[in-house]
Amino acid sequence: MADTQWPVYEVFHQQARGEPHIHVGSVHATDAEMALVMAKEQYCRRQACVNLWVVPAAAILASEYQDGDMFEHTTDKSYRESWGYKTPKTIQKSDEETPT
Fold first, then answer.
1. pTM for the complete prediction?
2. What is Dmax (Cα atoms) for the chain?
3. Number of folded domains that form the chain
4. DSSP code of 100?
5. Could you point out which of 16, 81, 92, 99 has its C-alpha 20 to 30 Å from the C-alpha of 65?
6. Per-residue pLDDT at 98
7. Range of the domain at 51
């Protein structure tokens, strides 16, 4: 970070109570309190907003794209998915298609 640029804060806002916070952008600010004020001015003037989070961008840890195998499933768990089960309709349909 250059001495002439303030730290970056990522901004998340909540449109209504009970809804998730959604990332809406970034602001440059001297500290977290100033980032909150700037985020309010930048992202809450035209949109419904009941809550804001500001997080220093340097505090965010992200996975690397090269670590794609990190997200691969190690075992078959299709039994947890609804498409893995047969319903009475699909059983009847498969019975009709099977030659006797």
1. 0.65
2. 81
3. 1
4. -
5. 81
6. 67
7. 1-62
